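Let us practice reading a record.
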Amino acid sequence: MFRTWLRANLSPSQYRYVVRVAKNALALWHRNDLNRLALLFDTDKWGSHWYTQHYQRYFQPLKHKRLNMLEIGVGGYESSETGGESLRMWKAYFPKSRIVGIDICDKTHFSERRIDIRQCDQTDSEALLRLSDEYGGFDIIIDDGSHLNQHVIETFRALFPVLKQNGIYAVEDTQTAYWPTWGGGIGNPDNQMAFFWKLADGINHAEYPIEDYEPDYFDKNIVEISFFHNLILIRKGNNSEKTNLPQLIQKELVATQAIDMAPALHS
């Protein structure tokens, strides 16, 4: 009833301002509960999806730090009237952090104190790197952008190397890995799930029985990958642990080489 009266008597911009102030006030009561904040700010990260329960567990130790957070995808598609809901949720949860959002559509009018919004294509790697340089790197990156498999992989390849040490990179809505019209498909080796599963193997690269194996950047800098329903969380760190059973690796390498040579010996 009161909302109806406000809509009838205020301009759209005035109405958005009043609602925003009211929600920011209410957010103080729920500032430690991401699920409730998601509902308050009308994001789809709780209710339509169930992501904030996982974010709560990973982000709670970081809550009072001064962080730079980037979210790809501001929301609202082409509409100039909607967007920024999750950015406001993050602002309420991280009281000392800078929240940055990018979107292919112009959503810059949703910027406010501690929330910066830029118009940017997530596949423009040069623009992404300039943005990272501008803020001195990001501690948390969340990809809630196009969800096209190729875009997800390209963006990760561009941004993960400049994510800060011990930072967390999240990929949302990974159901598109199984959808052919989004560049995925079950059994498609180029879908995003196949890409991240391979990176998960790389966490254990020290155990590969491969002579002179050269670990790549992701092998050396990913220490954790967690898979949830339609959500992946990747933690950056120094993955330099050595195998604790080098003698067994050596024996496995010799055995593997013998198996590889067998066809030639019998030809």
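A brief commentary: The chain is about 40% helix and 15% strand.
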